Amino acid sequence: MGRRAAAFARVANVTRATFDRLPPPSDRTIAMPSDDSADVIDRAAGLAPGDPLHSARRFRAKVVEATEASHEALLRQPVEGLSTADRLRVALHACTIAGARTLARHYEGQLAETSGADAPSSPALPAMLQFAAALTTDPRRGDRAAIDALRRAGLDDAAIVALAQLVAFLSYQLRVVAGLQAMRASRAGVAP
User: Which of 10, 28, 180, 190 would be a feasible disulfide site paired with 45, CB 3.0-4.6 Å?
Assistant: First the structure.
């Protein structure tokens, strides 16, 4: 197995292990939320238990659980060359340039709570931020040249794959939050 295939296999194993830890699906069609069931997306979109959109998200409870598990895994699972603090810095940067203030505040808070937040950033952080910005604003710029820049900055294939997965997840998270915010605003009769 080549280096690149081995890197993909390691990242796939971390992702698979994360989803294997999810609880089994409920026998109920709709999982009714409890008072403490607000996740990152709910908080960023301004949803609370009892809100019809909060309940609608739980129609597919496994998706909500998998999204939250992905959030934790992509930010906290150990990946050589990518500290949790640097991944949170990347997430904060991507959300800031996307104009997602509530998600940016979430990642800023997570970074402040992280024990390594005061630690110096990786020398590769500028390249990681540039890569995240490119994928967030114009995914076509995430080409071989962008990946080569990450390699020159010192990231190996496994770290590059993990970084790309994080940015892809952030893109998904940004779109879900924006959609929910727009739906809330339309229900309230105001512009998002």
Answer: 180
Q: What is this structure's pTM?
A: 0.77
Domains of the chain as residue ranges with CATH: 3-188 (1.20.1290)
Condensed to tens digits (0 to 9), the pLDDT of residues 2-23 reads 554 454 444 444 444 433 443 4
170 neighbors 71 (Cβ within 8 angstroms): no
Query: 107 — phi, psi (to 5°)?
Result: -70, -35
- Condensed to tens digits (0 to 9), the pLDDT of residues 62-101 reads 999 999 999 999 999 999 999 999 999 999 999 999 999 9
Q: pLDDT (tens digit, 9 = 90+) per residue, 93-139? A: 999 999 999 999 999 999 998 866 677 889 999 999 999 999 999 88
Alpha-carbon distance of 47 to 55, in angstroms, equals: 9
